[in-house]
C-alpha cells in the first residue's frame, strides 16, 4: 500500500498531539535521550540503504555534484528563511495558528519527508516514514504540551504533502521497465541512505550537515542510472 507510511505518520502525529495536550511539559533529559536513540536508529537505517548499491562511484558523483549544486542554489538557506518568514507571519496571531504553522514546518520542511515519500512510492518500503513517525510523534508531544491543540491539525498538510510525493513516485515507477526501474531504485536508495545518515548525525549533534543542500543528488542519481 503506497500511502501506508504516510498514514502511519499522520496517526503518530495525532497520538503525540493528544498525549501532549494532557501534559504540562516533558523533562529536557527525557526528550534528549529519546532523540539520541532515534538518531542512532536513523544512522543504521541509512547505512543499510547506502550499502545496497554496487556502484559507489556513481553515488559519490551524485552526492558531490548534487551537494555543490544544492549549496550554490542555497536550498538549506532558503528552507530556513521560509520557516522564519512563516513564523513571523503568525507571531501576532492566535496560539492555534502558531502551533499549526510551527509543527507543519517541522514535519514537512526536511529531506526525510521527500526521501520517505519517494521510498514509499518507488519501492513500497515505508521504513523511512516509520522512523519519521517516531520523530514526529515524539515532537508532537513536546509541541502540543507547550503550543496547544493546533499541532494536531498539522497532520493534514503532512498527509497531503507526503502522500502526493509517494503517489507521484508510484506513477513514475509504472512508466519504466522493470530493469531500468530496479537500477534507478538501487542508486536513489543508496544516495538517499547517505542523506539519512546525515540526518542521524544531525540528531546526535555530532556535526551540522546541510542535508537539504544534498537533495539534488537524488535526481542526479536517477538520471545517471540510465547512462552508467
Automatic annotation (TrEMBL):
Keywords: Membrane, Transmembrane, Transmembrane helix. This is DUF554 domain-containing protein. It comes from Melghirimyces thermohalophilus. The keyword Transmembrane helix applies. The chain crosses the membrane at residues 6-23, 35-51, 57-75, 96-118, 138-160, 181-201. It holds the Pfam family DUF554.
